[in-house]
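Attaching the record inline, Q. Sequence:
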Amino acid sequence: MKSLQIHLAVIQFLNLIIGHLPDQIATALSVNKLVLDPFDLYIAFDISGAGAGETTIMDTDTKKLVGVCSFDPDGQLNDNKVAVFEEAVVLCGSNVAAGVDVRTLAFTQVMPVEVANSEIVIYQRGQEVLRSPMSQLNGKVGSSSRPDVYRELKSPRFLVPNEDITIKVEVPKGITIPVGTYIKLLIPSLITRKL
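Structure, as predicted:
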């Protein structure tokens, strides 16, 4: 019954932010015609050689592709989907040979220090939805238990439909990400669906 408690907490959270939701979702929420489906948002990206500053890993040119990106096309959530999440993880693939398909990589918690000291930022509607050092979103090496793999955020976050989502990596000044480095951002979410 833990999942029921989580669903009820998310519905309560959605009621708190109802003014930020699209009209159709707000109406469905107010008449109890809204359900939540578990869905993992993710994107995998080659950040080899990224230098100081921002590197965009998802924007309006990003395409949905199984194994690479689960966000809807054009870097958005479509179909009146609101995503609510309170945990995330950044996994890494290192020393990857040139030309390797990202869909064939085994991502792990082992992360080069240059990646660990960089930040990942998610923007929507001109605001930061999440900003975190990658080291804070990196799971405990060698563990497969959920609390050790996924890092709990300090508060719930949400993404709304039909608005551009941009995800960037910010690399510190004087640092270059090693060649052959890929990252995968995983965000376990609950996505709204109207009944």
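The longest helix spans residues 2-16. The first strand starts at residue 34 and ends at 46.

More tomorrow.
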